[in-house]
Amino acid sequence: MPFGNTHNVLKLKYASSEEYPDLSQHNNHMAKILTPAIYERLRSKQTPSGFTLDDVIQTGIDNPGHPFIMTVGCVAGDEETYEVFKELLDPIIEDRHGGYKPTDKHKTDLNADNLKGGDDLDPNYVISSRVRTGRSIRGFCLPPHCSRGERRGVEKMSVEALDSLSGDLKGKYYALKNMTDAEQQQLIDDHFLFDKPVSPLLLASGMARDWPDGRGIWHNDTKTFLVWVNEEDHLRVISMQKGGNMKEVFNRFCTGLTKIETLFKDKGTSFMWNEHLGYVLTCPSNLGTGLRAGVHVKIPNMSKHAKFEEVLKRLRLQKRGTGGVDTAAVGGTFDISNADRLGFSEVELVQMVVDGVKLLVEMEKKLEKGQSIDDLMPAQK
Amino acid sequence: MANNFARILSGKRNVGIMSLIGAGSLTATFLLNREHVTAGAQVRRVYPASADYPDLRKHNNCMASHLTPAIYAKLVDKATPNGYTLDQAIQTGVDNPGHPFIKTVGMVAGDEESYEVFADLLDPVIKERHNGYDPQTMTHPTDLDSSKLKSGKFDERYVLSSRVRTGRSIRGLSLPPACTRAERREVEKVVVDALAGLKGDLAGTYYSLTHMTDQEQQQLIDDHFLFDKPVSPLLTCSGMARDWPDARGIWHNNTKTFLIWINEEDHTRVISMEKGGNMKRVFDRFCTGLKEVERLIQEKGWEFMWNERLGYILTCPSNLGTGLRAGVHVNLPKLSKDPRFTKILDNLRLQKRGTGGVDTAAVGSTFDISNLDRLGQSEVQLVQTVVDGVNYLIECEKKLEKGQDIKIPPPVVLQLLPILVQDVLQPLPLLVQDVLKPLPLLVQDVLKPLPLLVQDVLKPLPLLVQDVLKPLPLLVQDVLKPLPLLVQDVLKHLPLLVQDVLKPLPLLVQDVLKPLPLLVQDVLKPLPLLVQDVLKPLPLLVQDVLQPLPILVQVVLQLKVPEERVPGQVTFLSSSCIIIRLSSTYTSQSNRGNQGPVH
């Protein structure tokens, strides 16, 4: 319970209308859905670990949002949050994930062989390829809510599992609070190091408490498989390499993840997962696969084209700057990745990226030659 | 009143009941005493305390200095009646390790009871932050009688503006780190209602942060009144910025000299300010305004959080006591470049800041100079410290302008003495002071023929004390004049041992006096009586001599100097000195009375 007001049973003596937040200036999913009636019904509830409604929505209250960008505005503190606060979270999930209904089932597919192609993206345009997801360890509270002891427990268990990886996955863990200056500089140069979050979207949820206690970075010796421990989620798993061989990246991704999952099962625990929501993570926007597969691709002409946004929309892709979310593109190089997380399997999403990026590169080449791309316009996926 | 009944029925706190029947704050204090505060909601704990104990190895703040694993284990399962926990109180200190040079407090209170429930941690933090103030044994003086302020008008060629601020919390509602939205809105309502009752030059308007127009906002910015959502992680990590800007606002009077911030870092921050150097008027308005606001909220059944031990209760332990920061913007181009500037400020118990407030740099040579202390000194004392100090700084600046040299002033005495010594020094018989003042050589000569006993009494005292007594004439004159200050100045030169020994004075006196004859021990023990009792073993004669001495001195001064010296009689050679006869009987003409035993 990050905030002092949330375990205040005495606050229930105040009428719900007196406690209901002022969301008149707000534009996020939570503010759209949270009516006074829902607030009244949910405010006396809490998960078995003590996470309350105010804990869930605090980040959305403190960050009214942006007229153009629709953030989620709430977080989960544990696996049960999605059950106890269904009444709020189901409509938010539906809104955020393209109409995903409370009765829908999510398909998990981590069989990299099912991916078609993906090994031939033109390296003259595709500078790097990357797949990331997150995993939560069942039985522990999530970053907004965990105690220091729990966070250290997550770290310990994760490091034990990662240390037993072998072959091209063999690697080393660097705890944020113990790393030497030399190690830190190396991780910065490799673009691996993550810092204490500065975004108020994250800070307001309480996930940055006690920084850098219990946080760290693990990566394999070849620097192609990387795990963040206790940043926004228990684990963020990243597979990456230079060039356009997304197939190889995805192969390693699936192998690594499956191995780690097996290791956890051997220790008597597992990842948070269920049939309806897939893999459970802190932010409702990362449910399902939690997967973002993307490339850094040079498309200066395409990006200036009037139909660029439309193409992306049809391909179910999104663009970001090369610094990650909330950054701007540099010199016509964009981060292009799947827009969806839930309702499609991992293979399906990576397939969309592979096919979509291939098409974008084709369009770029045509535009370079001064040709039209109208005949290449895709259908809505 | 509906409010009171509702609060009692809600069972929030016993204080509600006691205020209703008018038992007053002393009883409230009693009820808030540690033993009476029961734990609140069950604290969810999955791991043993040792697994949750924070890693404070790289930390430099008061919380980290005092939060041992043992104290953590003792307190981590506790919660205040509102459900506020230790982990929440210390979160800001865990998240902000601090700076090697600046030691922050590193923890906050979520409600009034935090100071009781977490006293095992907060008391040592308070002691460290507030110069040794011990909440368990000391009381904090509250004094808002601004008429006591002396020389509160500064030279306006140097002082550009004057300002006094403090904070007040509304009893019965949680503090900003912990309050719910409804509680915060209630604070706003209670305070705004009260402020609406202010009249005359205090009448004003409230501007809610959520509802202000662009024009109002611009005006408040131009007036330098507007406060923004805090960005400092020291503040945001405590949770006080939640739900911004809900229920936050600014009230100010029409003349823009009295300003109140609502629900920023505290329930209220009260600020009195003016351009120029009339600190007296600023402080007058400050006190009047505060008392009026208090009266107005009491009419509706509310009161401020206050108790005898900690004074006014605020969110940050650094603001306990008076919560008062009185300061000026003062231009000191020459002094600020003098290498002794910092030491001078230290000795005057002042701190400098840039004119943008805490953590800003000075612009040009204009500084924000204000009091360092908050707790253990009253409002009047602190503002007087600022007045005296700033006047001294201006004098220094003027001297430097003329090419004269300046002096580092002696350190201002902190009156944080244990009550016994305070009470002892305060009512020292004016007689003794007046008596001893014009008696330079007398004391020396009086003591010389004192019986060996007294000398033996003095022998085991640190040689320094003897050395102090040796050049007594000048010392007595200069040193005893402002007697409290003197004792401290004298004590300053004593070996640390003597200082530390004198601190818990009763015990000290016992220890120091152990090897002394029991007689002297008993005599010196109750220090108020010290002077009288020290004189006890002296010949009754001396006592008798000294008691009516003023009259005697006056009388004697009218007499002629006798020709011959009589044993036992003390005569001074200089005509400006005074003749004393060790005689128990006198008439204005007698000069050969009995001498009585001179021990």
From TrEMBL, chain A:
One GO term (biological process): phosphocreatine biosynthetic process
Q: Which family does it belong to?
A: Belongs to the ATP:guanido phosphotransferase family.
List the signal peptide residues: none
The superkingdom of the source organism is Eukaryota
Q: List the protein's name.
A: creatine kinase
Record flagged with keyword Nucleotide-binding: yes
Looking up Pfam families in the UniProt record yields: ATP-gua_Ptrans, ATP-gua_PtransN
Please report the stretch or stretches of sequence annotated as the Phosphagen kinase N-terminal domain.
11-98
**Phosphagen kinase C-terminal domain mapped to chain residues:** 125-367
The answer to keyword Cell wall biogenesis/degradation applying to this record is: no
The Swiss-Prot or TrEMBL record annotates one GO molecular function as: ATP binding
Record field: catalytic activity:
creatine + ATP = N-phosphocreatine + ADP + H(+)
Which EC number(s) does UniProt give?
A: 2.7.3.2
Species, as recorded: Oncorhynchus kisutch
User: Gene Ontology terms, cellular component aspect?
Assistant: extracellular space
Cite the binding residues for ATP: 128-132, 191, 236, 292-296, 320-325
Q: Which PANTHER family match?
A: ARGININE OR CREATINE KINASE, CREATINE KINASE B-TYPE
Q: Which PROSITE patterns match?
A: PHOSPHAGEN_KINASE (PS00112), PHOSPHAGEN_KINASE_C (PS51510), PHOSPHAGEN_KINASE_N (PS51509)
Top-rank EC class of the record's enzyme: transferase
Keywords tagged on the record: ATP-binding, Kinase, Nucleotide-binding, Transferase
Automatic annotation (TrEMBL), chain B:
EC id: 2.7.3.2
Q: Which residues form the Phosphagen kinase N-terminal domain?
A: 44-131
Q: Which GO terms describe its molecular function?
A: ATP binding; creatine kinase activity
- Positions with a binding annotation for ATP: 161-165, 224, 269, 325-329, 353-358
Subcellular location per the Swiss-Prot or TrEMBL entry:
Mitochondrion inner membrane
Primary localisation category: mitochondrion
Per the record, membrane topology reads: Peripheral membrane protein
Q: Where is the Phosphagen kinase C-terminal domain?
A: 158-400
Q: Which PROSITE patterns match?
A: PHOSPHAGEN_KINASE, PHOSPHAGEN_KINASE_C, PHOSPHAGEN_KINASE_N
Pfam families per the UniProt record, alphabetical: ATP-gua_Ptrans, ATP-gua_PtransN
Q: Provide the top EC class.
A: transferase
Question: Which cellular components does GO assign to this protein?
Answer: mitochondrial inner membrane
**What sections of the protein cross the membrane?**
none
Query: Which Gene Ontology biological process is one annotated for this entry?
Result: phosphocreatine biosynthetic process
Coiled-coil region(s) at which residues?
Answer: none
Question: Cross-referenced InterPro entries, in alphabetical order?
Answer: ATP-guanido_PTrfase, ATP-guanido_PTrfase_AS, ATP-guanido_PTrfase_cat, ATP-guanido_PTrfase_N, ATP-guanido_PTrfase_N_sf, Gln_synth/guanido_kin_cat_dom
Which keywords annotate this record?
ATP-binding, Kinase, Membrane, Mitochondrion, Mitochondrion inner membrane, Nucleotide-binding, Transferase, Transit peptide
Family, per entry: Belongs to the ATP:guanido phosphotransferase family.
Record note on quaternary structure: Exists as an octamer composed of four MTCK homodimers.
Query: What function does the entry list?
Result: Reversibly catalyzes the transfer of phosphate between ATP and various phosphogens (e.g. creatine phosphate). Creatine kinase isoenzymes play a central role in energy transduction in tissues with large, fluctuating energy demands, such as skeletal muscle, heart, brain and spermatozoa.
Query: What protein name is recorded for this chain?
Result: Creatine kinase U-type, mitochondrial
Native species of this protein?
Oncorhynchus kisutch (Coho salmon)
Q: What is the name of the gene encoding this protein?
A: LOC109897707
